[in-house]
Specification:
heterodimer; A: alpha+beta; Sufe protein. Chain: A; three-stranded antiparallel sheet; 5 helices; 3 strands; B: alpha/beta; Aspartate Aminotransferase, domain 1; Aspartate Aminotransferase, domain 2; four-stranded antiparallel sheet; 15 helices; about 40% helix; about 15% strand; globular; binds pyridoxal-5'-phosphate
């Protein structure tokens, strides 16, 4: 079986978590990978006083890697402090996915992190 | 008849990658030993610069290099070797023409191209048009992926200066009826210039540029069993003669004075600096290889492989094939999508079985936008392709569907 397409990734791809839209998001952002045709948008609900993400939704189209990465990330994000999310790195995403990626697929995996960081930057 | 298994023996990569199923010739072809040896021969036996040395190995290198020009002239039916310009690739050949013709374009002139072009036959014209503020028309395709001839001809008028289109689409596989199309275009405007992008054609069937009636024809060595880094521009001699040089420097001059320079005649006027000598000489061996096979046989083999692949691929559920359905009307390339599975995932899973296909927009983003798909998967066939390769592809695709079921 292909490492890349292990059960967990396929599961998130086939049954994305937190897929859809929030009624009253605090911030939102989107981005795409023009060369792959992948599109991803995220909406966050933020509790301003505690600086915590209380809810998140994402929507998009893309390959199994970019979509499952986004789905998994939304699970990570909920209840986390904004500061802790801003310092998430490429390595955190790779650890989360638990797979080795070639440079061409790396950008698929990192799209979700880029969109998340963009949303958090939009806050200020 | 060509036997792909027999041909594979000439390609050392199959010994180094024993289970390789290479289905991406549209991106670049594999190289036979004969080509590798010939390139090596230059480096080991007479690796001198050309045109410069009054000594034997330089003269040998020059002779080998210029002999390839003759071979290519013969291979594509050019009037003389003087009409063959060596460049880096098909892209550079198009840019050379776009720069040369572009210089003479003025407000009111028009350029026509098509939506099925590779970026390399699209962006150079688009950018010229934008810079010069001249009209730039993009012809449509039909629902079957053929050029919409009526639409294209409707865009030709007495202001049209340049028409650029591909001989074979690198995505749809469509073989355009170049000869009849050119007749009709020239009937509407005999003064417009026509460039045909032969990147996916020259290696696949017999080309006769004079019979086609075009003004410029371009292709790349690396897509025709030859080395990377070499491209060919064919142009009618009087057009090349009237065109400005593309780059300036050594090899392209006949005399340089402090205040002026006299240029060589075509084709050397367009070959500034030391060219890819080994690459050109290697390309000669690729031409020899194809000539021995016979271009009719090459075409026949591709039709056979394409028919076989079309038949099997059509039997897969949820798989959509783009381009003409009849293998006689298409080159050995098949782009497809599978419902709900991204092309990158298809390619990645196939790769785990050493099956190489391409996934993406294949440098034809306007086409993909017009087809309303972000990306497609693409398999392509050549002389070394066998039915077993295609069986492996189909088996791999079934596995992809299982994984995503
Ligand atoms: C139809 C077509 N035109 C032009 C090119 C550009 O060729 P090169 O990259 O060798 O310049 C390609 C290569 O994929 C092609 O398929």
């Amino acid at each position: 079986m292909d490492d890349l397409y292990r059960e967990q990734i396929l599961d998130h791809y086939k049954h994305p978590r937190n897929f859809g839209e929030l009624d009253h998001p605090s911030v939102a952002s989107s981005d795409n990978l023009v060369s792959c045709g992948d599109q991803l948008s995220m909406q966050l609900l933020i509790e301003a006083k505690k600086q915590i993400v209380t809810d998140i939704r994402f929507q998009g189209i893309g390959c199994a890697i970019s979509m499952s990465s986004a789905s998994m990330l939304t699970e990570v994000v909920k209840g986390k402090k904004i500061h802790d999310l801003q310092t998430l790195t490429k390595d955190d995403i790779l650890k989360m996915l638990g797979v080795k990626l070639t440079p061409t697929r790396l950008k698929c995996a990192l799209l979700s992190l880029e969109v998340l960081h963009k949303a958090l930057n939009n806050m200020k | 008849m060509i036997d792909g298994n027999q041909i594979k023996k000439d390609f050392p990569i199959y010994r180094h990658q024993p289970n390789l199923v290479y289905l991406d010739t549209t991106a670049t072809s594999l190289k036979p030993q004969q080509v590798i040896d010939k390139e090596n021969e230059y480096y080991t036996k007479y690796s001198a610069n050309i045109f410069r040395g009054i000594y034997k190995i330089s003269e040998k290198a020059t002779e080998e290099y210029e002999r390839v020009r003759e071979k290519i002239a013969h291979f594509i039916g050019a009037k003389s070797a003087g009409e063959i310009v060596f460049v880096r690739n098909a892209t550079e050949a198009i840019n050379l023409v776009a720069a040369g013709v572009g210089k003479t374009l003025k407000t009111g002139d028009e350029i026509v191209t098509t939506i099925m072009e590779h970026h390399s036959n699209f962006v150079p014209w688009q950018q010229r048009a934008l810079k010069k503020h001249i009209a730039y028309h993009v012809s449509r395709i039909t629902s079957e992926g053929k050029l919409d001839e009526k639409d294209l001809l409707g865009k030709i008028n007495n202001k049209t200066r340049m028409v650029a289109f591909t001989h074979v689409s690198n995505v749809l596989g469509t073989i355009n009826p170049v000869k009849t199309l050119i007749k009709k275009i020239k009937a509407k405007n005999p003064h417009c210039l026509i460039l045909v992008d032969g990147a996916q054609a020259a290696a696949h069937f017999k080309i006769d540029v004079r019979d086609l009636g075009c003004d410029f024809y371009v292709f790349s060595s690396h897509k025709m069993l030859g080395p990377t880094g070499v491209g060919v521009l064919w142009g009618r001699y009087e057009l090349l003669d009237n065109m400005n040089p593309y780059q300036y420097g050594g090899e392209m001059i006949s005399a340089v004075y402090v205040d002026r320079t006299e240029f060589k005649d075509p084709p050397h006027k367009f070959e500034a600096g030391t060219p890819h000598i080994a690459g050109v000489i290697g390309l000669g061996a690729a031409i020899d290889y194809l000539r021995v096979l016979g271009m009719d046989k090459v075409r026949q083999h591709e039709i056979e492989m394409t028919s076989y692949a079309l038949k099997l691929l059509r039997s897969l559920k949820g798989l959509k094939i783009y381009g003409p359905q009849n293998p006689e009307n298409r080159g050995g390339v098949i782009a497809f999508t599978i419902e709900r599975i991204h092309a990158h995932d298809i390619a990645q899973i196939l790769d785990s079985n050493n099956i190489c296909i391409r996934a993406g927009h294949h440098c034809a983003m306007p086409l993909h936008l017009s087809l309303d798909v972000a990306s497609t998967a693409r398999a392509s066939f050549y002389v070394y392709t066998t039915k077993e390769d295609i069986d492996a592809l189909v088996k791999g695709l079934k596995r992809v569907q299982e994984i995503f079921a």
